[in-house]
Amino acid sequence: MKIVLAIVQSIDAPVLVAALSAAGHQSTLLSTTGGFLRSGNSTVLTGVAEDGVDEVVDIIGVHCKPRVERSGTAPRAIQPGELQISPPSQVEVGGAVVFVLDVERFERI
Ligand code: 2BA
After folding, report:
1. DSSP 94
2. Which of 6, 53, 64, 94 could form a disulfide bond with 12, CB atoms 3.0-4.6 angstroms apart?
3. How far is CA 20 from CA 7, 26, 47, 61, 93, in A?
4. Which residues fall within 8 angstroms of residue 13, CB to CB, at 6 or more apart?
5. Mutate which of 31, 42, 65, 93 to test ligand 1's pocket (most atoms within 8 Å of Cβ)?
6. Ligand 1: distance of its center to the CA of 34 in Å?
7. 0.85 cut: is pTM over it?
8. Residue 9 class from Cβ within 10 Å (0-12 exposed, 13-18 middle, 19+ buried)?
9. For ligand 1, atom 6, which residue shows the shortest CA distance?
């Protein structure tokens, strides 16, 4: 068994989870935060037999689209009453960052 761990944009997550479910795959949706943008994203965990991994990854690919997001550093106080604001730049986020992990043991109790 494997765990497919997919970090996706939150806007894509509900449709992705519904598509996985329609294809017979159970999943768990976690609310997460990206370390770079510090904005919310979503992590979808799907436990699947090894021969189902490609199907799960394909479903992720269909439903998670790359988008360009602004990346600005939070304003920083340099002196009382003065803020230093870095110019925003743009980064492409997603469609999805996918890790496939081995599962040593699975039980439903
Ligand atoms: P964030 O860390 O908020 O990163 C959002 C996007 O910012 C990234 O998109 C990437 O395009 C850019 N980025 C990230 N770190 C950067 C840096 N040090 N310098 C310049 N640009 C940078 P994605 O690569 O599509 O990643 C989307 C989200 O997936 C990430 O959100 C993070 O939550 C997660 N992620 C990506 N790679 C990961 C990894 N190796 N381990 C764990 N989580 C990862």
Report:
1. -
2. 64
3. 15, 7, 11, 12, 22
4. 29, 42, 44
5. 93
6. 7
7. yes
8. buried
9. 93
Mean pLDDT of 79-108: 86
Type of residue at 109: I
E-state strands within the chain: 2-8, 27-33, 40-48, 67-71, 76-79, 82-84, 89-93, 96-102
Rounded Cα gap, residues 1 and 108, in angstroms: 14
* 66 has a pLDDT exceeding 70: yes
Nearest CA to ligand 1 atom 40: 97
pLDDT band at 86 (very low <50, low <70, confident <90, very high): low
Pocket (CB within 6 angstroms of ligand 1): 7, 34-37, 41, 91-94, 97
For residue 55, is pLDDT > 90? yes
